[in-house]
Amino acid sequence: MAAEEKWNSWAWKEHSAADQAGDKDSCMLLGQQLGEPGRFAYAALCGISLAWLFPEKEQSSFRMEFIEGLVKWLDLPDAVLPAMTAFASGLGGEGTETFAQILLKDPMLKDNPIVITQDLVSFSLKDGYYDARARVLICHITWLLRIPLEELEALEESLLESLKEQKEEESETAEVSRKKKERRKKLKRYLLIGLATVGGGTVIGLTGGLAAPLVAAGAATIIGSAGAAALGSTAGIAVMASLFGAAGAGLTGYKMKKRVGAIEEFEFLPLTEGKQLHITIAITGWLCTGRYGSFTAPWSSMLQSSEQYCLAWESKYLMELGNALDSLLNGFVNMMAQEALKFTVLSGIVTALTWPASLLTAASVIDNPWGVCLHRSAEVGKHLAHLLLSRQQGKRPVTLIGFSLGARVIYFCLQEMAQEKDSQGIIEDAVLLGAPVEGEAKHWKALTKVVSGRIINGYCRGDWLLGFVYRTSSVQLNVAGLQPVNLDDRRMVNVDLSSVVSGHLDYMKQMDTILKAVGIKTKECRLEEKGSASLFSPPAKKTQQAAGSEARRDEDAAGGGRWSWDPVDSPDTLDASRDGGRPCPGEPFPAGLAQGLDSAGCSLGETSRPCPGSPNSEDGGKHAAGTGTETD
Amino acid sequence: MDEDVLTTLKILIIGESGVGKSSLLLRFTDDTFDPELAATIGVDFKVKTISVDGNKAKLAIWDTAGQERFRTLTPSYYRGAQGVILVYDVTRRDTFVKLDNWLNELETYCTRNDIVKMLVGNKIDKENREVDRNEGLKFARKHSMLFIEASAKTCDGVQCAFEELVEKIIQTPGLWESESQNRGVKLSNKEEGYGGGACGGYCSML
């Protein structure tokens, strides 16, 4: 089958060691070919990683279910369960490196460790449900095995592609029935959208343009015979369909049928054409006339996932706010005052700050639209939370990213989700940039319940505008968008954007640079990648966390002329104050290219990859040691 | 849940394949014996709380697989262990001879040099003994280990082996104190040279 071949060839094309015999093997389930010690090490590695990633008590059922499922999936005897359970509950965590080494030395995996990732993806998808926690785990394991994260993305993409191909083949032969189906589809669509919210698992629907039975057929060729047994069943077909959201409509199909609460506008705009097993939703903070008049404008360069959406909400008010912000900066407050304000805010005495009279006279211009939007963003956030909880997006991980009031939407969305049941495993990462929300760690604690991957708080110390507009909303000026959130959790990553963002409006105008700084993939990066490929052997190494190394790479490769700040200072621009958040289980990666990985990592050439989860660990560490300005 | 537990100790059981590591553990934790016990895969894990000198200690016992094919996995368990039980079969001399290898491995992978070691000669209920008790005792003394002969089948010395080991660990405060705070990474090892003194502590029961 074409799909099968594609899958195989993909799995091997990265590795020159591909041979024909191996080609056949790679579609077999890993559990059938890997030796017992290898399988044991594989499961143990997952167990230990689970315990490390999700040590919370409320996650224990997920950990246990996952590890028990994996033991069965790998055909390991039940006798290993006590040990696996011990691993998954945080015991024996010292062995990570040994287990990883064993796997990397296994003759079957030596040249091709990606099959572990491949197997984990298949395992995680077998119930038609891609849990965000599972994806975070897969990313972690992938990293432990020194595999570039791009390979995981490529793997997920090719899985989807094969599904699509399968569908096209079939549709030619069965065009008549397809047309019939399509007619029925239209009729059933509304019904199905409703059904999906009730029980996604039981809906036999159509995935984003793909007929469900065909999806399962395609999946069978990919996942392998044993995996297909699970997917080929009727239930399997249904859950496979549910992975992609209600009846193929997904998020774009979502329209508010009527006003919900105070919300007037709430709609998803697709940012990209593609389909992916995980999606990204971007939320804009305000609108301006001119170039930034649309919700999608600031996100033009983002490429976090090949399926991205942008939330359009309350454009009327956001436009009003944008214009007010503009006029405030261009008319009422002169440049001198702005500079002065910036430094006052920077010096950290904002609590006692007396705002200049010129600004206070202008306050009426901004306070009203700001107040309205502040209120609406909270409402929109709650609505988004319920939408995500009802799995309109399908059962796959979601990454949320937003700036200014968009970040506030995310904050309230996560807060709302944290109060609901079954809210875990939906959100992968959350990126909040210049967020006008409280910056107290205790308020952020709830967020860790729903976010599986990272919570990134991008802040700017000199953002006087944020300080000003937020002055009435909060007595103490403790705003997340102005300072790091001192939450002790591996998920929490604070990124100081002070040298990238010179004012609040930059969040919109400098989005490209900011995205890179916080470690979100952008389109430009991919292009640039090709240019410097000779220096950094395998291309497409742009992990979503690689921003830190990216800055470095620029220094090394091109002198960093592309960056708007002086590259020499780049370690100072990025302050992952939680750099200890995800400690490297192996040797810590030293900065720059001089990193020596004693294992297959070297042969893969992924030299400049920092720890997953702490995007700028090296820079952050350096920074903390170097300047010591940030304490957390 | 266990507030009255003084500490949690990590105990490791190592030794050649088929010497009865799992049987010893099974006898200790569940007080049962299965002559047809299947070979351990990777590692087995059991928890038991015991009381020694009025102190309650929770034992997290890792029972490793002796089979050669799982040998590569063993190094991952040594780290952070406070006590190790080396088992040989008194009816098989080769398992006794191989003890040197196990001690080498212990030396290589163990993160601390004050780890308490206990040598157990198992299967003393059997007739065809190949390793004399004195030989075992001499070996244990030479490598400053505690020593006991036991039988998982008849329950001889099993309880004592674990109790002696735990007692010794508790008497070595640097070994288990503040263990809860810094899991894993501990670069300094202050209680150096303690192992030399442990020699006198071997127990020769039975």
UniProtKB/TrEMBL annotation, chain A:
<feature type="transmembrane region" description="Helical">
    <location>
        <begin position="222"/>
        <end position="249"/>
    </location>
</feature>
<keyword id="KW-1133">Transmembrane helix</keyword>
<keyword id="KW-0472">Membrane</keyword>
<comment type="similarity">
    <text>Belongs to the TMCO4 family.</text>
</comment>
<keyword id="KW-0175">Coiled coil</keyword>
<keyword id="KW-0812">Transmembrane</keyword>
<feature type="transmembrane region" description="Helical">
    <location>
        <begin position="190"/>
        <end position="216"/>
    </location>
</feature>
<dbReference type="InterPro" id="IPR029058">
    <property type="entry name" value="AB_hydrolase_fold"/>
</dbReference>
<dbReference type="InterPro" id="IPR007941">
    <property type="entry name" value="DUF726"/>
</dbReference>
<protein>
    <submittedName>
        <fullName>Transmembrane and coiled-coil domain-containing protein 4</fullName>
    </submittedName>
</protein>
<feature type="coiled-coil region">
    <location>
        <begin position="149"/>
        <end position="184"/>
    </location>
</feature>
<feature type="region of interest" description="Disordered">
    <location>
        <begin position="531"/>
        <end position="632"/>
    </location>
</feature>
<dbReference type="Pfam" id="PF05277">
    <property type="entry name" value="DUF726"/>
</dbReference>
UniProtKB/TrEMBL annotation, chain B:
<dbReference type="GO" id="GO:0003925">
    <property type="term" value="F:G protein activity"/>
</dbReference>
<keyword id="KW-0551">Lipid droplet</keyword>
<dbReference type="InterPro" id="IPR050227">
    <property type="entry name" value="Rab"/>
</dbReference>
<protein>
    <recommendedName>
        <fullName>small monomeric GTPase</fullName>
        <ecNumber>3.6.5.2</ecNumber>
    </recommendedName>
</protein>
<dbReference type="GO" id="GO:0005794">
    <property type="term" value="C:Golgi apparatus"/>
</dbReference>
<dbReference type="InterPro" id="IPR027417">
    <property type="entry name" value="P-loop_NTPase"/>
</dbReference>
<keyword id="KW-0449">Lipoprotein</keyword>
<dbReference type="GO" id="GO:0005811">
    <property type="term" value="C:lipid droplet"/>
</dbReference>
<dbReference type="InterPro" id="IPR005225">
    <property type="entry name" value="Small_GTP-bd"/>
</dbReference>
<keyword id="KW-0342">GTP-binding</keyword>
<dbReference type="GO" id="GO:0005525">
    <property type="term" value="F:GTP binding"/>
</dbReference>
<keyword id="KW-0813">Transport</keyword>
<keyword id="KW-0653">Protein transport</keyword>
<dbReference type="GO" id="GO:0015031">
    <property type="term" value="P:protein transport"/>
</dbReference>
<keyword id="KW-0378">Hydrolase</keyword>
<dbReference type="Pfam" id="PF00071">
    <property type="entry name" value="Ras"/>
</dbReference>
<keyword id="KW-0547">Nucleotide-binding</keyword>
<comment type="similarity">
    <text>Belongs to the small GTPase superfamily. Rab family.</text>
</comment>
<dbReference type="InterPro" id="IPR025662">
    <property type="entry name" value="Sigma_54_int_dom_ATP-bd_1"/>
</dbReference>
<dbReference type="InterPro" id="IPR001806">
    <property type="entry name" value="Small_GTPase"/>
</dbReference>
<keyword id="KW-0636">Prenylation</keyword>
